[in-house]
Amino acid sequence: MTFFLSMLSKPARRALLAEKIDSYQKLAACTEGEIAALHGIGPKSYPVMRKALKEAGLAFREAEARNEKKIN
């Protein structure tokens, strides 16, 4: 299991794994809005995911559509 997954809550981990998001690269290929749409992802998950991506030299993909929300 990729390290960042072990730092997330069980519901958040299950939500990501259900979508086959099990690596930093797969997480970075998603926008925050796409992750927010997953059942089980809560607001405490975002700082963990952002920090993990930053340490790996990555970041969430930027939202392209106006209606896609960015989680603060």
Terminal CA distance:
26 Å
What's the rounded overall pLDDT mean? 90
Number of strands: 0
In the residues, how many domains can be counted? 1
Structural class: mainly alpha
Order of helices and strands: HHHHH
Organism: Listeria floridensis FSL S10-1187
Protein name: DNA-binding protein
Describe this structure in words.
With 72 residues, the protein is an all-alpha fold. It has one domain. The protein is 47% helix and 0% strand. It is built from five helices and no strands. It has helices spanning 3-6, 10-18, 24-28, 32-36, 45-55. The longest helix is centred in the C-terminal third of the chain and has 11 residues, at 45-55. It is globular. The termini are far apart. The mean pLDDT is 90. This is DNA-binding protein.
List keywords for this structure.
72 residues, mainly alpha, 0% strand, globular
